[in-house]
Amino acid sequence: MREPDSLRSTVDVAAACADVIERVRAHSPRVHCITNAVAQNFTANVLLAAGARPSMTISPEEVGSFVAGADALLVNLGTFDAARREATDTAVEVAAEEGLPWVLDPVLIDRSRPRAAYAADLVTRGPRALRLNRAEFSVLAGAEPEGEALRRYALDALTVVGLTGETDVVTDGARVAAIRNGHPLMARVTAIGCVASALVAACLAVEGDAWLATAAALLALGVAGEGAGAHARGPGSFAIEIIDALDRLDRDLLVARAKVQ
Amino acid sequence: MREPDSLRSTVDVAAACADVIERVRAHSPRVHCITNAVAQNFTANVLLAAGARPSMTISPEEVGSFVAGADALLVNLGTFDAARREATDTAVEVAAEEGLPWVLDPVLIDRSRPRAAYAADLVTRGPRALRLNRAEFSVLAGAEPEGEALRRYALDALTVVGLTGETDVVTDGARVAAIRNGHPLMARVTAIGCVASALVAACLAVEGDAWLATAAALLALGVAGEGAGAHARGPGSFAIEIIDALDRLDRDLLVARAKVQ
Amino acid sequence: MREPDSLRSTVDVAAACADVIERVRAHSPRVHCITNAVAQNFTANVLLAAGARPSMTISPEEVGSFVAGADALLVNLGTFDAARREATDTAVEVAAEEGLPWVLDPVLIDRSRPRAAYAADLVTRGPRALRLNRAEFSVLAGAEPEGEALRRYALDALTVVGLTGETDVVTDGARVAAIRNGHPLMARVTAIGCVASALVAACLAVEGDAWLATAAALLALGVAGEGAGAHARGPGSFAIEIIDALDRLDRDLLVARAKVQ
Fold this sequence. Notes:
Chain A is an alpha/beta fold.
């Protein structure tokens, strides 16, 4: 017998993740992205490859209408200027009014205190998920990114933590998924974390369980990364191949390759 | 007997388009681009592949001197902030003074009213061509993008309409070209419309007949897209292959592959 | 017998350059880049391929802390707006305080007088190296970019001149290296000069002799360009292949292929 709302085995989680990825393709959600200039083109192409429809304006005058017409929002702090902060404030406010899910990517907050303070403030404004690396988590949570601290932070902040690294860990405080897919070249391509966060937003648009949406996005990117790694001749071609691999990714491949616990 | 200024058959139009593309390579026109951050790198590489010389600054202090030294101007509204509007105002003014042709790309005006209003105002300032999709045309013209409405809009606005989609339609109100080249992956790569508009600008730099220049640009991109589609393994590699295909594109290939009416 | 600090033969220079490139991989220096939006993604991926760790923020509020935590700084004038000038002023000041080496890339100063004036001012603030093309040198130095003028300018400005073109010339006024590596497609890809400057910054981070660091960066890019040219089918794939080639570049290949005098 199986309880509702509980996913017990790798196969269950992988199959549920595959459902989410299929729904992204079926519904083509609009994902508005406030992200940095380094990541914008790559992010747009990754979202298109996954079946979503990206928009990218950061103009304070019109970001509100773009967010109001979107199905999910990405807030990436990779560029942190006054105009983007103003756009972010408006975007998050509109997302709250519209009940739109959003994900926060606190890029490089370990390198800048004002950015870290701004990220901490944003966490209080209701992101459904955070996607970050170990150094960024440590700054935000004031704790090492280990199992218990991750769970406690997710519970305290009422959000899902999607920690990426050699193994990705996704937790909402109650459930924990460890994803062992991926490829070493993912650490050699700029903005891979940023596109992971954008995929989380796309999945949040079609899946109300933010833990599952976050796991689906990170699993899909990890499996696509493995496919890309099989064809790439270095980090340049890897960044192209991972877009092609996401485009090809289907349910069977995702379930067959998933290393989720 | 053949009237001057009239192109009667597919072969005539395709050959005239091939002339324009050859002149871009021969004269290497300078094309100044006010465009969005998502599109900038791709646009610069597409222009270089076609033989043009791009510049991209949007700084209000110096955009005037870049435009004055250029052979054509692209105004793309994909990012719509105060600084870009100021740069656009200066650029369009300098283009008018210098008699420089320019093309307007009213990106996503169906998503933002202030952007649509700004685009409508820009149309009154004399772009030689508009490059847009169906949703954008509908907002700008207040009419469905069908044959008669396209012609009437071009006549009223004294410009050329280059409508892209499965079939591209180019009209100056009197003449209509329908271009059936292209590849489905063109809809899966970000900023393809933006680079189409940049190619229109490059062709306007070497061809005074804006209808022919616009048709040449869209035909070249469509044929390059077919070549790219033959090699691509997905949308990531397609975006690379289309640059390579534009670089290789020559008169014989363009005329042989053209599906223009 | 061999004098210290003097490199007499092609083999000596190439071997010394290879040492620098190996040190970049071994130490993974942090390189903060104030660069233009066209170049940002390509620059970040090139630095990662060479083994460095890029950061790119241009926000005036935090650029100081990023520079203080970096090992070298790139100042690229390809976008020249008020915010980037403010960020540059702060970054150069912090670099001076911290003794951090920095490189100036005066992009397109031949197209804009205010940009040229700003570049001339920056030269007085102590860049260890300039990376520029012939037109840019002519504007900055008020002289043709020939051997004697290059040497005199380097001596007067107390910097290293890294002039790129068909043959790259690197001089500190005393020593001159001519590098004949490279590939014609390097002139057909946007931002190749910008990434060359970023590699100079990465090499300055690990090599106190700015002449040698600049030569190492330009040699590595030239040899990688030759490798890329062997696989590329056009400028689109070339831009990808050069990243892969930089990633594969090792000491033996660099020394075997070097054409340095």
